[in-house]
């Protein structure tokens, strides 16, 4: 099995440490072995051939991820790269990280927590300094499940909305981003056939799905590395203003602001992303549902600011 990577994530004259492949139809052909550097000539040759993506084998994706993460500061400051390309590299790298971590035991989260904070620092810088992130987020892909892309969407939207609403210290914004990135971690304990079911869930299936905030909260709490802010987001991102949410049925003043904001980001991302059972909605359609059919679910002040943020 192969995983797609961005050509721009490779720095000329460096050794990625993984074998690179190009795709021809349904076949994958090795372009460069793991012991060879990626050169300026390689990049020019590929761009001249209109090749903007390459592939690595799945078992090498962790090594590739860490190569890119270790070079993010260089990539994010590369003035020869278009700003949108830099954003694509950053957000796709974040998706790859989530995919890698969610597919491994919980101990992997603890072992890689510094990587998570490093990525979140770059996302925070992008949110604070870029004109917008909507276009970059729309370009994210993952070939297995929507959960990984969704996690990055929610973290980025949540940080963005927090910066519009409050003057927070950087450390708190990082806690918000980390909690939002891991908000659906409990779904690693939910059967995949349930998560990917194309039709409506039965009552018993929905009850099983509703366990994921509590499951995620407990698993991450046991690692003893997540802040109370991050853990609160994981546990309470499905609570609603009117008290009809879960797992604790909290009402407006009982719900932390970070959980309220992540709830908005969570639903907006879910509605505007392609799913196995329906096509993505436009942002206008999604907001109409959130203000209409879902009235009572969200803090209206926060939702109004979010609407202005993404317009």
Short description:
The protein has 311 residues and is mainly alpha-helical. Helices cover 54% and strands 7% of the residues. The protein folds into 2 domains: 1-61, no CATH class; 71-310, Hypothetical protein af1432 (Orthogonal Bundle), CATH 1.10.3210.
SSE layout and pairings?
Elements: E1 2-6, E2 20-24, E3 27-32, H1 40-48, E4 53-57, H2 61-70, H3 72-76, H4 83-102, H5 107-111, H6 113-129, H7 134-138, H8 146-165, H9 170-181, H10 192-195, H11 203-209, H12 212-221, H13 228-236, H14 257-271, H15 283-291, H16 300-310
Antiparallel strand pairs: 1-4, 2-3
Helix pairs in contact: 2-4, 4-6, 4-8, 6-8, 6-9, 8-9, 8-14, 8-16, 9-13, 12-13, 13-14
Kindly describe this structure.
The protein has 311 residues and is mainly alpha-helical. It folds into two domains: 1-61, no CATH class; 71-310, Hypothetical protein af1432 (Orthogonal Bundle), CATH 1.10.3210. 54% of the residues lie in helices and 7% in strands. The chain has 16 helices and four strands. Strands 1-4 form a two-stranded antiparallel sheet. Strands 2-3 form a two-stranded antiparallel ribbon. A hairpin with a 2-residue loop joins strand 2 (20-24) and strand 3. Helix 12 (212-221) packs antiparallel against helix 13 (228-236). The two termini are 39 Å apart.
